[in-house]
Amino acid sequence: MPNMQPIRMFLLALAMGLWGVVMAGGPVTWTFAATALGSDTVQVLLTADCGPGWHIYALDLQADEGPLPTVITLGDGQRYHLAGALMAPPATEAFDTAFAMPVKYHAGKATFTQNIRRTTTEAFMVSGTVEYMACNDRTCLPPKTVEFTLNVPPSLH
Questions:
Q1: Which residues partner with 117 through β-bridges?
Q2: Please, what are the domains in the chain?
Q3: What would the pLDDT profile of 66-90 be if each residue is shown by its tens digit?
Q4: Separation of alpha carbons 10 and 18, rounded Å
Q5: I want to staple 68 with a disulfide (CB 3.0 to 4.6 A). Which of 2, 85, 133, 153 is the partner?
Q6: In whole angstroms, what is the distance from residue 74 CA to residue 130 CA?
């Protein structure tokens, strides 16, 4: 019977590596905040923090055959309405050899903003989702969806 020790060591090393990836939470973390811009307008801030070498794709891409764009969904609520379009930071545009096409992406920190207009002076909740695809120069991870809920405090006016 062959010596099983090298196989056991390999499996242990593989398991330890996977544990580290799971514990790390992935190469992109998201934070969400709401800031009052006036008595009836609130700005929702959605910030992606991409780890070194990683990026997410822009909200709009030139073609459907390549990577998946970032999709941010923030629906109208009973206590607020969307006020204007979702705003994205400037994206980097480059030719991606893996997809053989030009793409637009965000690396480092990228903050997306959506203004909402409150219809009440009472506190309310804002919920939504962010769907994104994280890639580096060697690989892409499967698309991921992050849900968020923010508490907007009552208006002071």
A1: 41, 81
A2: 26-152 (2.60.40.1250)
A3: 899 999 999 778 899 999 999 999 9
A4: 12
A5: 133
A6: 9
- SS3 of 20, please? helix
Quick one: average pLDDT of 121-136?
94
Mean pLDDT of 118-133: 94
Tell me: pLDDT of 61 over 90: no
Q: What is the pLDDT of residue 60?
A: 92
* Residues composing the chain: 157
Both tokens assigned to 131? 């769907």
- Closest by alpha carbon to 132, among 107, 157, 150? 107
What's the pLDDT tens digit per position in 105-125?
999 999 999 999 999 999 999
Q: What's the one-letter identity of residue 57?
A: Y
Residues 31 and 113: their CA atoms lie apart, in Å, by 12
Longest Cα separation, the chain: 80
Measured between alpha carbons, how far is 5 from 134 in angstroms, rounded to an integer?
36
Query: Cα separations (Å) of 100 from 56, 61, 63, 66?
Result: 17, 13, 11, 8
Residue 105 backbone phi and psi in degrees, to 5 = -145, 170
Residue type (1 letter), 101: M
